[in-house]
User: Fold these one by one.
Assistant:
Number 1:
Amino acid sequence: MKAVFSTLSPVEMAVLVAEPLIMVWYITALLASIICPSPSSINLPRSAFPLVEMKLSLWLPISVLLQPVISVYVLLPLYIYPYDDAGTFLWQPVIKAVAAHPHVQWQIIINPDSGPGSSKYPDSQYITAVSKLHKYSNVKMIGYVDTAYTRQKITEVQKQISLYAGWAKHTRENITLSGIFFDDVDDAASAAPYMKTVSQAARSAFPKSHGGSVTFNPGTNDSPISYYDYADTVVNFESSLADYNNAKTISTFPPRHRPREAIIANNGKPTAAALQTFVKQAISSSIGGIYITSDCCYQAVNATLLNAMVGDIATAQAQKSKRKLILWFA
């Protein structure tokens, strides 16, 4: 439950708490109208029975309006080192985009050295950078692990997961992670037992009950359906933007798992209109995570493109909420 609640704004959280209380209120009214159908029969004024006057036709629109809008999140492969040789903070564009849109959710993939590296903790500059991201409640960070299409030894994968989990014990700064991103996932059916085993290791280190999550990145839509039993999110597209075709591409994904699917389009420079279409199509299709970048290998952050994408997500979310209100009050 913590993982779900972490994606909601404070207003949406209040709505989730209020909705069952209102439902109880309505049920009480319904029972009262059955038990005491006529207020005058017990010689009390009509005003003594305000709940009896509640109607189902009133509750239904209220119920729909109170449903929180849970939308797409940014799945960002943040593989660059946080500082350059001159001391410039290269993650600053990410920090600015996160802060500018506090209701847009992020899952940021942390990758110090094609994995956590061999040390107990990352170096001091990495610690500083990760702790900066921890200040934002709309950010969730997950650690990068390369499965090398099952060629990586399971013992090595387990070791890397344990190292990431150990970051939570750092005493000076908060560098706790919330899960694992498995990259280079084999999409062959024969890889399923391997992925089940490494997923279990990740679940043990980052329990779902504590907000932990597991993401698989086969990068294609051909992976075994059992992957959805082992992972919270499956990246069904990771390729050049030129290979992506919005609704046509999404139509090839397993339809009942859309909120648990993700799209990463790289090596492209979309026009403003194309970017808006990319975002709107993902949201209307209930896709879970998205990212689009001009870089092929996630070795740079295009601040202009990132800000535009996050702005489009925020705008699309607001329009979705507005349409919901118009539907019931028109």
Note: The mean pLDDT is 85.
Number 2:
Amino acid sequence: MGTRKELIDAVGQRYRTSSGRDKPKILEEFVRLTGYHRKHAIRVLNCSAVKPAERRPRERVYDEAVRQALIMLWEAADRICSKRLKAVQPLLIVAMERHGHLTLDTGVRQRLLAMSTATIDRLLDSTRREACVGRRRRGAINSALRKSIPIRTFADWKDVKPGFFEIDFVEHCGGVAEGTFVHSLVLTDVASGWTECIALPGAGTDPGDRGLCPSPRSAAVSAPRYQQ
């Protein structure tokens, strides 16, 4: 590729500076060497002198100050996913500023509130990797299955009806998913705020001790009934 480019530059310069009488000879020679069609060869030789425009470096929109503020918000929100963090950011920023935990200038605040979930993921990527060092990675869930399950945050509910729950499932393993530990399953009814907290045994729990933990079905039994 480098040799061909050098050939095009050299022949092109000679072709453009030659008289009309010499150009057909140069063109024939060039076509014979490259195998180009005559029309294409003419375009290549005439355009070889045009230098590609230099790309200007793109100005960074989200600088280190924005990234550090985002990390602080992410940590304060217990490292939730980007979609939930995007929804809770306006309320979280106001609360943290009110209690003196965060001070933002106008520019940083505007950029934090304007960034998309994809940008949040990109800015938090290195921080998440450092936070997960040493943790055993679990098997990946089928992506097609994950995409088939609709997910809403609290900010996405426009027509709230009783009976729809937000669910959080947490491993209380101290960052090391080994040995025996308990999982907590928290179900919150979006309409009423009714919350059920259930302790579930881990994979290494003795089967004889699993009866001490309630079944998730108990939450449905104890949840209040609503009249339609």
Note: Residues 64-131 form one domain.
